[in-house]
Fold these 2 entries.
Entry 1:
Amino acid sequence: MSAEPARIAPEVARQAAHWHMLMLDPGTSPTQREACARWRAAAPEHERAWQKAQRVQARLGLLPPQLAMGTLNRERRQVMKQLLVLALVAPAGYVGYRQVSPAGDYSTATGERRRLELADGTVLQLNTQTVVDVDFDDHQRLITLRRGEILVDSGHDPRHRPLRVVSEQGVMEALGTRFLVRQRDGRTQLSVFEGAVLVTPTNQRVDAGQQILFDGRNPSSTTPAREQDSQWTRGQLIVEEMPLRDFLGELGRYRSGWLRCQDEVAPLLISGTFQLGNTDAILAALPATLPVRVGYRTRYWVTVTPR
């Protein structure tokens, strides 16, 4: 069995993050690029840290090459540098969180929802199958969404520390706001209901009533935010003309096991308000509104087929 790679010292990680960000700036001088090359060659750990920074960049898209660093102000550059250092010194806890045990500061099980009030008065609501970390320090209030979906109602901090939410695809800074963040299919959904949110690294401001779905690499077009997307906080799933396949995918987040439909019924459209506290009752009612049958091989293996 191969030996585990040696951990990168925090100081070396900070240096690697500094050089990595500097090399992304198109205004970097030849002299600075030569200095970076000398730093990389000075010690094997330097080159190892540099290569790991490259891998972190490719995986998380923290600092996309197509984004001119000159478009980021000093504070936001510092945030990105801190995230990169964190990924270098603690990859198992940041870069690889999708492959490790889902233990975080706060979490919910399948079908569970949870409401928290943080030290600054921020109200944080966790949807089903969600894991978050909360880290407040002297410089910022940081919430890391490792999995799932949260609704954030930002509190007033007398110390005026920025409130930031980190997803796998980027950083969202609240500007006195109420907003929803969801990790889904390798992208982040951000829906803003009050105030505004500043998104890095796509460098976008999302205002109240707007929503984006971003991958951390390219700017995303906005669409209208749907207040009904937050009604899971009240135990409701509200849909309008949603294909049955997508509806079952949403419903499946709130129950254990396998929930699927055959292709023949997948495009059927469904609308309504559904109470998430009893997913079996929702499934039992489907044949009353759609030409389908709901079959149970076991309690945890459900298939919807044509009638």
Entry 2:
Amino acid sequence: MKQRNARLTILFCRLASFVQAIVINLAPVLFIPLREEFGLTYEQIGRLILINFATQVATDLIFGYIVDRLGPKPFVVAANVLSALGLWVFALTPGLFANPYHGLIAGTVIFSMGSGLLELLVSPIVNSLPSDQKASDMALMHSFYAWGQATVILLTTVLLFIIGREHWRAIALIWTVLPITTAIGFMTLYIPRFVEEQHRHRLRDLVRIPSFLVAVVTIGLAGASELSIAQWTSAFAEKGLGLPKVIGDVGGLVLFAVALGLGRIWFGLRGEKAAQSLGLYRYMIVGAAAAVVAYLVASLSPWPLLSLAGCVLAGLAVSLLWPGMLSVTAARFPLAGASMFAIMSASGDLGGAFAPWFVGIVADRAPFLLNWSGQLFAGGLTAEEAGLRSGLLLATVYPLVMVILLLRLQATARRSAQRIER
């Protein structure tokens, strides 16, 4: 592959990561307008997140083997088309159903299929291209997800404020321009197969390796750690902290995304030096530990602005967890192909599906939680505030367990490196 074409392919992979940010983060900004217009419960809102990521999991598992056999190009084009189509359905079909929630579900399923394919494809595409800085390319590509998240949240929040919440459908349709453009771009590119069939590691062999199974569980916790707070910061700031929506979205969710992007940009600019001598494991361990602190600050602080700062800190803390796990696992199993990325992506999506849903379930149990939450939180909380704070507090377990598993993976990698040196 010519170097120029490789760099152009990486550029469109970065745009595809931006598209994924659109379809994952647009709905959370609209949670409160949707709740108010259609009378949704927090559990129903959380269920949309569950459906989103559960669909991505199914897509990852179904198409991993097929992509290895047929090649990635037709699927990466289809992924962007499905992303655009899903947003159209999400915006326009609620008015066609007796229960508008069914229209929201239909749109969510379609654009989640697109997002699942993008997640399955863009990382192995970048990893397969000729480069001597694969970890940096991976981190920089994933940073575009963060910049997409920040851009979607900021522009959507501003437009909701300017033209009114009742016009959220038009805003959703505007965002379909980028996936359509990216689909056209991928049509013009040559994208090679990831690993030739005769050289590829079989998935049935990978799942027998203990360190691979630990890595799969760990990236699931990475997804849970990132998405629990990313998907709920907007609603948490407005309904859990009592802040105006504009301040909560811009000062919390946008800055969360900026912190997420800056962490990935920093790692990308440092290049491979940051990944040498097991350094990437150390960065991830520190990040997961910092995420524990951030979750505790966000959920327990009696001062709303400090809680919001905890949400922002969480963005920086989790920035390397997902791309870092993909990088170290791809380096450990270089001939695994799309099937390995499918399992890793599916696990991350499962964490991103069930963890935010669990936050919503806890929030809906607020009247019960209010009986004991006074011992943890500042006095005078409403049931809604207590429920949202409790949901985030219980989510602290995800980065905490991740620290333990990362320490085990680091020890395994160190022993493997010592054997090679001998």
